[in-house]
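hi got a favour to ask and not much time before my train. below you get a single protein, a line of residues and a line of whole numbers that encode the local backbone shape. could you go over both lines and see whether the tokens make sense for that sequence. a few lines back from you is plenty, here it is:
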Amino acid sequence: MGITYTTYEAKAKFSEVLRQVREGKTVTVSYRGEPVAEIRPVETPAQTLEERIRDLELRGVVVRAKGPWKTFKVGKPVPGALERFLAERD
């Protein structure tokens, strides 16, 4: 289920509602417990991946990596590490 605001909440938190919509979420507005409106992102023409990344950069959602990619080295497996990790979670 999506995000639902009462009419009072939607009015009081309109900037928050718009932020949710800009993030691609659909917001439902209810009146006396019944949904009466749906606020959703506007359908835009399909963007290329590069255009989408540029848009996300401009909005400050992502930052491109600087410099060359580095390889990730995996260490030696440690016997019993998974069991200890799971035991610490409990």
In short: The helical segments are 7-12, 14-22, 49-58, 81-89. The mean pLDDT is 89. The CA atoms of residues 80 and 86 lie 10 Å apart.
